[in-house]
Amino acid sequence: MAKQQIRTQRTDWQRNHERLVEVASVLVARDGAQVSLEKIAREAGVGSATLHRHFPSRRALLEEVFQGIVERLRRRAGELAGGDPRTGLVTWLEELTVCAANTRGLAAWLAAGADNDPPNGDTCHVVMREATTVLVERAMSVAAVRPGLSPEDLLTLAEAVSLVTEDDPTAARRLLHLALDGVRP
Amino acid sequence: MAKQQIRTQRTDWQRNHERLVEVASVLVARDGAQVSLEKIAREAGVGSATLHRHFPSRRALLEEVFQGIVERLRRRAGELAGGDPRTGLVTWLEELTVCAANTRGLAAWLAAGADNDPPNGDTCHVVMREATTVLVERAMSVAAVRPGLSPEDLLTLAEAVSLVTEDDPTAARRLLHLALDGVRP
DNA sequence: AGACAAACGGAGGGACACCCCATATCGTAG
DNA sequence: CTACGATATGGGGTGTCCCTCCGTTTGTCT
C-alpha cells in the first residue's frame, strides 16, 4: 500500500511527456510561443488529446519548456553572487536579457509571470526575482547602485528590453545599457 | 471623366468603414488587439466578408484604429518642441509611455512597427521616431542628455516599458524614470 | 425609372483548441 | 507466463476563427 502512495506514472506516460516537451522546445524556438499545439502533438507522434491530458493549458506546456533554461539562469545568478558585487549585477542583467532575447518566447513568458492573477506557486518570474534580489542587495552593500532600487522593477525593465528586442541580442545589450546608464550626461 | 478619376466611395462603404473602425476601437480597448475579427464584424452589424474587404489584414484595421491616437501624440510632440528643451523630452517620453500603457494593444503595435519587414510606408512607429528625434536634438543642444544618444533606441525603450506595464500607468511611469535615471548613484 | 457598377452577406473550406469514449497498453498478481 | 484491471491513448466531434466565393442587394448616374 505504501508503494501505491508514491504515484509513479506509467513508462509510456513518461516517454510521451518528455517527448512532448522536447518537441515543443524545438518548435517554440523555431516558430514562437504561439505554435499550434496540434502541430506539436503531430510532430511528437501523439494524438492531440494526449497533449491536452499532459498539459491542461498552453501555459503548463511552456512552463516545462522554459523550466530548464530558467534553472540554468538561476544557477548562473548563484555563481555571480559569489563574485564581485560591483560587476555581478550588471553581468547578470546582461546575460539574462541576452538569453531572453535569444530564446524565442521566453521574454514574453517571464513578463507574463509578473502580473500573475492567481497564486500559482513559484513561476519563472518569481525565481528570477529572487535571483535578482540577491545581486541587487550585494551591489547596494558596496554602493554600486542607487539606494532604494527595486529588484522587481529592475527585473521587469530587463524583461521589457528582451521582449522588445527578440531575436536581436545586440540591440538587447545596447538598450539594457542605455537603461542602466540613464540618459543624462 | 476627370470627375471619375477622383475615386469616391459609395456612402454605405464610408458608413461601414467608419463604423468598423469605431467598433474595433472599443473592442480592442476592452479585449486587446487579438479580438476576434468576426466579433468586430458582428458588433458592427456587417458580414465578416465586408470587414475583410475593407481591411485585408488585422494590421490594416489596427493601423486605422490607432491612427487617431498616434496623430494626437504627434501633435503633442510638436507642442513640446516649442517649450523648454530640458523638460520637453522627458515629458514627451512620459506621456507617450503612459498613453501606450493605457491603450491596450498600442504598445505592441508601436513596437511591432520597429522591425517592419516590408517597406510599408510611414508606420506609427516611424511617426513616433520622427517626433522623438526632434525632442532629443533639442535636449542635446542644451546638453540635457548624453551626446550620441539614439532617438530610435530611446523610443524603443519607452515602447518596451509600456509593453511590459500594460494597464498599469503607475508602473509605466516608475519604470521609465528608472531607465532615464540609470541605476548608479 | 432603369441599368450598371459597387458593395454586401451567407455559406463553406481549412485550421485550431479542446473533449468524449471506445480501444490499446502497461504492470502486476496469480 | 498469462490474464486482468487500471492507466493511457487517439480518432473523431464540436465550436470558434480567418478568409474567400458567388449570388443578391443597394447606391449612383443618366
Automatic annotation (TrEMBL), chains A, B:
It holds the Pfam family TetR_N. InterPro entries: Homeodomain-like_sf, HTH-type_TetR-like_transc_reg, HTH_TetR, Tet_transcr_reg_TetR-rel_C_sf, TetR_SbtR-like_C. PROSITE patterns: HTH_TETR_2 (PS50977). Gene3D superfamilies: Tetracycline Repressor, domain 2. Residues 36-55 bind DNA. SUPFAM superfamilies: Homeodomain-like, Tetracyclin repressor-like, C-terminal domain. Keywords: DNA-binding, Transcription, Transcription regulation. Residues 14-73 form the HTH tetR-type domain. One of its GO terms (molecular function) is transcription cis-regulatory region binding. It comes from the Bacteria. This is Nucleoid occlusion factor SlmA.
